[in-house]
Design brief:
The protein has 126 residues and is an all-alpha fold. The protein starts with 21 loop residues before the first helix and ends with a helix. 66% of the residues lie in helices and 0% in strands.
Length: 126
């Protein structure tokens, strides 16, 4: 169905009693009945246009909401990807930094400080 360009709510029916419709009225035996029939037909079409307009407005609103939802999802996905990339970069950077050895007090001392600890004990022992 083609798009309706204008809201039909404010449309007014033509004046079927005017001179413009004189030929139409003259073609029928009872001109008053013709005016009623024309007005009834116009009203029926007008009601259909109003319903179609309301449906079109609803469809447009739903399409806009869907587009906004997709936009939000795209932004959220991009932000999540950026956060994940940043976290991966931090993890890579952390891997490159030298790591301090894990201290375990239950292990005997080792390394360069061992001599100092042994020397201190030796000095304190006599």
């Amino acid at each position: 169905m083609p798009r309706i360009r204008f809201d039909p709510e404010n449309e007014v029916p033509p004046d079927f009693e005017s001179e413009d419709y004189a030929d139409v009225r003259a073609a029928f035996p009872v001109p008053a009945n013709v005016v009623v029939a024309l007005l009834t037909g116009w009203t029926s079409q007008h009601d259909k246009r109003k319903i179609a307009w309301a449906l079109q407005v609803d469809e447009d609103r739903l399409a806009e909401e869907e587009a906004e939802r997709q936009q939000r999802e795209a932004v959220d996905a991009a932000q999540k990807e950026a956060a994940d990339a940043e976290e991966r970069a931090r993890a890579e950077e952390a891997k490159k930094k030298p790591q301090a050895p894990v201290f375990d007090a239950s292990l005997p001392p080792t390394g360069p400080h061992t001599f100092t600890a042994v020397a201190l004990r030796a000095q304190q022992a006599p």
